[in-house]
Amino acid sequence: DELKDYEKALEYYERALKRKEKMMGKSHPDTLMTLENIAIVYAMKGDLRNAAENFKKALDGNVAQLGKDHEDTKHSVGNLAHCLNLAGDTEKLSELKREFPWL
């Protein structure tokens, strides 16, 4: 059952996230990538609200750590924008475009 696979993936990534936050900190690129992976699983599962929340956390971490113009940040912005677009959240998408005009 595919839903079970998503739940297993989320469980795995959540455990990995806790370990990475403890060992490397919340802003480490590996930690932020795990947040992105969690968001992707939520999106694949159809839970766009949780996907967007995790994409936003990863984006905030990338901005704080790397700045707005870094490639990892741009990747995070694109993921969040795509998720918000799929969810039909035009308000948050507009806010994101104001913050990142190049989007």
Keywords summarizing the entry:
5 helices, single chain, mainly alpha, 83% helix
Task: Walk me through the structure.
- The structure is a single chain.
- The chain is mainly α and 103 residues long.
- 83% of the residues lie in helices and 0% in strands.
Task: Point out poorly predicted stretches.
Answer: none
Order of helices and strands: HHHHH
Query: Would you count the extended β strands for me?
Result: 0
Radius of gyration: 14 Å
**What shape does the CA trace take?**
flat
The largest sheet, given as strand count, sense and whether it forms a barrel, is:
none
Task: Give the termini distance in whole angstroms.
Answer: 37 Å
Output the structural class: mainly alpha
Would you tell me the overall average pLDDT?
A: 94
Oligomer: single chain
Helix content: over 70%
